Amino acid sequence: MRRRVHPELHRAEHIGWLRAAVLGANDGIISTASLIVGVASASPDRTQVLVAGAAALTAGAMAMAAGEYVSVSSQSDTEAADLEKERRELEHSHDHELEELAAIYVARGVRPELAAEVARELMSHDALGAHARDELGIHAIVSARPVQAALASAASFAFGAALPLATVALAPARFIAMGVAAMSLLCLTGLGALSASVGGAPVGRATTRIVVWGAIALAVTASVGAVFGAA
User: Considering only CA atoms, which of 223, 222, 196, 220 is closest in space to residue 26?
Assistant: First the structure.
């Protein structure tokens, strides 16, 4: 009787896009809302606030995409260089690489005889893949994907920035700063809970962390705007 293999779903598969998406949405909400609150505290003119918010959304989304692409591309280049170096070592020092891989398994608690056998089997199947995974720590799940990270960051930033911007269009002129601050903290609470549930982390801790930093940013920019407005 054949045993049916039960596929397991692990949250580590979401690390690449989840990190970029949460970072982008968080930055979109906090930076755009903070800028809007600062401008509204200085001069509560709806048109000026909308122009400033729209500019922040556009510039922020492009900056997030460019920054994420460049940083993740650097990681990807490093991974590629390490893999190329490992490929050359496998060509010229195969026996040494076999011993090195077996030593890694011994250090993890495998008996030396079994470690040597496992290393031989894995290297006969995919030598570079075995060393990439167990020696270099490069795995398909967490390997760098620059385009995916850039698109996720830009899209999530634009989405996050659109929320306080929509509040500006709907809130009464004299309550713009207060309305944007309240809506932003509410959105940050939802973002913290969502990212925690997707990543399998404690909801309370993730939510508190993101809301506290958002509140600090809003308070500081509101104070700066009020000072310049009074001046």
Answer: 196
* Nearest by Cα to 69 from 164, 148, 12, 143: 148
At 155, list the tokens.
Answer: 């899209």
- C-alpha 170/C-alpha 160 separation (Å) is 17
In angstroms, rounded to a whole number, what is the distance separating the alpha carbons of residues 124 and 25? 45
Max Cα–Cα distance, the chain, nearest Å: 83
Q: What are phi and psi of 12, to 5 degrees?
A: -60, -20
Q: What is the rounded distance in angstroms from the CA atom of residue 61 to the CA atom of residue 25? A: 10
Predicted confidence pLDDT, tens digits, the chain (231 residues): 445 544 444 444 445 556 667 778 888 999 999 999 988 888 778 888 899 999 999 999 999 889 888 888 887 788 778 778 878 877 788 888 888 888 888 888 888 888 888 888 877 887 777 777 777 766 654 555 778 878 888 898 999 999 999 999 888 888 888 899 999 999 999 888 887 777 677 888 888 888 898 899 888 988 887 777 644
